[in-house]
Amino acid sequence: MLIKTRFDIRSSEITDERLYLNRRDFMRSASVVAAGAAASLVPGWTGGNAAFAQTPLADVRKSPLSTDEKQNPLDEIAGYNNFYEFGTRKEDPARNAGRLKTYPWTVKVDGHVSKPGDYQIEDLLKAFPLEERVYRLRCVEAWSMVIPWIGFPLGDLIKRVEPTSKAKFVAFTTLLRPAEMPGQRSDSLEWPYVEGLRLDEAMHPLTILAVGLYGKTLLNQNGAPIRLVVPWKYGFKSIKSIVRIQFVERQPPTSWNIATPGEYGFYSNVNPEVDHPRWTQARERRLGEFLRRETLMFNGYGDQVARLYTGMDLRKNY
Amino acid sequence: MVRVPRLPAFRSPALFKPFVFLLALTPFIALVVNGVTDNLGANPIDKITDVTGIWTLRFLVITLAVTPVRWATGWNFVVRFRRMLGLFAFFYGFLHFSTYIVLDQFFAWNLIVKDVLKRPFITAGFTAFVLLIPLAITSTAGWIRRLGGKRWQMLHRLIYVSAIAGAVHYLWLVKIVTIEPLTYLALVGALLAIRAWRTWRPKPSPVRPTEARART
Prior knowledge:
heterodimer, A: alpha+beta, Sulfite Oxidase, Chain A, domain 2, eight-stranded mixed sheet, 11 helices, 21% strand, globular, B: 216 residues, mainly alpha, 0% strand
């Protein structure tokens, strides 16, 4: 099949795509001699975006849940990342994520479900119809992008594994592999990265497991080979490179809450009225735009998700 | 005291000043070059803010290090560079502050005032920069004369407060505390500690001439 045979394409064979998608690299390489010495004085820059092997995904349907806002280009989406497993600077994941082997890859589904099991990534790619979901992603640092994810509703997987009545929350775990994820050798966060959702949040039609972007499977720095996207919450809740999905009874621990409990809560719904203790959440910078824009309640998805939180004090449950 | 070989007496450190000036300007030049070649990444305003901020802090540390270096090495000529280095700290601080006002907030004054009053890390940063303004203005020989050496020196001790406020600004804005903000805090702390020790250490008793000759 198309997907199975092309998993072992070496990145050296895909130079055409790289050139097509990364015209900026051309400009950079042309000026690299001039800027290189100077750029080395400015910490953390290589001036490049590594483009890794990406497999084209077939039969991707459009979705009415997508936004028609202007999408950020791939070199921004794949060049500006918070993925501390690969370093804490925005350029680090693009630079360091290449060493991560994303195939073979197993996602363990267990906990309070009737049908636990281990799913191989190639099975997950075929198991459910893939949709394109163009979502806004709002980082807690007050910047945002519009990203054309490809994935399937998490709810589809949940229905298949049949959670029991004891399952109230869904807990997610990222890969732990310090040999390929150099950031895991430092104490920036506790590893592996963990996140969680309430079961109704996980079942919501907007919540997806993403396997691709711009028509192809994910680049490593975007959370390959499979990650969560919960567009009405701050971006750190959209956990990347998932290896385990566990259905639990009690609210599970989440990594940023462990790191700084007073600043990052379990819910972390995008909320311009509840500031981060140290900075405001009222405005954000959409990458590519000059002026900041007003942050929208639930990142603009309030019509679809506000009902999940009726009666809840969202200041207390930040 | 560090035993450092004495350099030949410099007749004109003025010869070296343009060189040091250009060296200090390089981060700014690199920023401009990277800006023009579209090499500032996906969030250029953020990148400019970061780079100008870190070089403000670095030049504050470098400026504060001049006098301790002179004490340790006996190289008096380094003092001649201190004003230029201090002014570069102000230069990068001004760029950093302007980037915030113009590029990041685009003159949204009510929001800026709210930020300065409500966000501790911005309060610290604002303080650090504002304290450098009188220092930049009075950096000339004319002002040393006008104020008198002693009052000028007292005023310019504000750089200590500015450097601390700057290091704290950095520490309070990061999501997780990594080695970098801690390093600047440690450096500023150490450089101030050296001065404090120098000022308040028990002074050695006067040396008699015979003993002095025996020691050399």
